[in-house]
Amino acid sequence: MTARIADVVAALEARYPPAWAESWDRVGLVLGDPEAPAARVLFVVDCVPETVDEAEKVGADLIVAHHPLLLRGVSSVAPTTYKGRIVHRLIRAGIGLFTAHTNADVANPGVSDALAARLGLVDTRPLRPSPADPSRGTGRIGSLSAPMSLAELTASAARALPPTTIGVRAAGDPDRSVERVAVCGGAGDPFLADASAAGADVYLTADLRHHPASEHVSGEGPALLDAAHWATERPWLDGAAELLRGDVPVQTVVSDVDTDPWTVHAPSPRG
């Protein structure tokens, strides 16, 4: 029996209830007839022209994206605009679009569980537990199987995460011994204080800003690892696709298209 888009939406919303999303977020079905067939589903971090190309190439009936295409209110989706062109392409191709964003961030398993697994963390728990259910929440904190230096963990993280131009950078003493590791997929500097309070030796996330990072490592907080936003969220796609296949009779494809905007990196020459 061929699944419908409605069946896929029901399965995904059971795993990632829309009520778990932040009030500012926009999640759920964006495009697509709920009664249309959904034989093949493409999982992506971003719905951008490159991943729409991929959806057309693999014959996807539905895209499941982590980041919302239409996060803020719009007055037009005219094809003369960037997002309007994407909307028109999807409609012409008969491809639906579904978003699971902050509701997937706090799920268990969710975005940060997949990130923690890439680093080999054990005994993980939410970094900022949900008041309604402490088994889920934002970020994760756990332990490495054995202590290592910050420099060693930085190199290990760069190997474990999907490759990007910027790779992984660290803030702190390269020789510092680390074992307790906090992670947060996506932009995680709002949770620096949570990482400190949880007793983390190091905190891995993305999009760390200069002043918060500088003030943080100057104090008693954990060392910092900063990776590309896409690389910290891409690992979630594999598990989400596997769960969907167990819930609904569909084929799934996971996108490895690197949607990180940075495409060139030249390290500064040293003295």
Automatic annotation (TrEMBL):
The Gene Ontology CC terms held by the record are: cytoplasm
Q: Which domain of life is it from?
A: Bacteria
The answer on whether this UniProt entry bears the keyword Nucleus reads no
Q: Which UniProt keywords apply?
A: Metal-binding
The family database entries (InterPro entries) matched by this protein are listed as: DUF34/NIF3, DUF34/NIF3_sf
Q: Does the keyword Transmembrane apply?
A: no
Entry binding sites for a divalent metal cation: H66, H67, D105, H229, E233
Q: Name one Pfam family in it.
A: DUF34_NIF3
Q: Name one GO molecular function term.
A: metal ion binding
Q: SUPFAM superfamilies this protein is in?
A: NIF3 (NGG1p interacting factor 3)-like
Q: Member of which family? A: Belongs to the GTP cyclohydrolase I type 2/NIF3 family.
PANTHER family recorded = GTP CYCLOHYDROLASE 1 TYPE 2 HOMOLOG, NGG1 INTERACTING FACTOR 3
Summarize subunit and interaction data from the UniProt record for this chain: Homohexamer.
Q: What is this protein called?
A: GTP cyclohydrolase 1 type 2 homolog
